[in-house]
Amino acid sequence: xxxxxxxxxxxxxxxxxxxxxxxNKYHVDLKRKNIKLKAxxxxxxxxLICGYDKCSDALEFHHLDPTKKDFGISSDxxxxxxxxxxxxxxxxICVCNRCHREIHSxxxxxQNHTYHF
Length: 117
Known about the structure:
The chain is an alpha+beta fold. The protein has helices spanning about 20-45, 80-90, 95-105; strands at about 1-5, 10-15, 60-65, 90-95.
């Protein structure tokens, strides 16, 4: 026997997973990771503010106009079709988590900022 492949489970598994629930969670998680990587590639794979590009887990999407936000890309948006996700991404910029926090706290003004293309 081996450990279940779902990273949040510590049960023993006869095959790859201990249950159908763990198998489903594993595949949903894998799909979300793949969609995020595709979305990052679509958005340039770096922070538009500072140019950071070392760790994809540190990159996020910021909606330029929150009133036009249909859904959060990194939350419930990852299980939608690519056409819907790419349409939502066109309303966003890619930023690192540090710059994202500074945008929301008012330290970075997007109107007067030079972008790293």
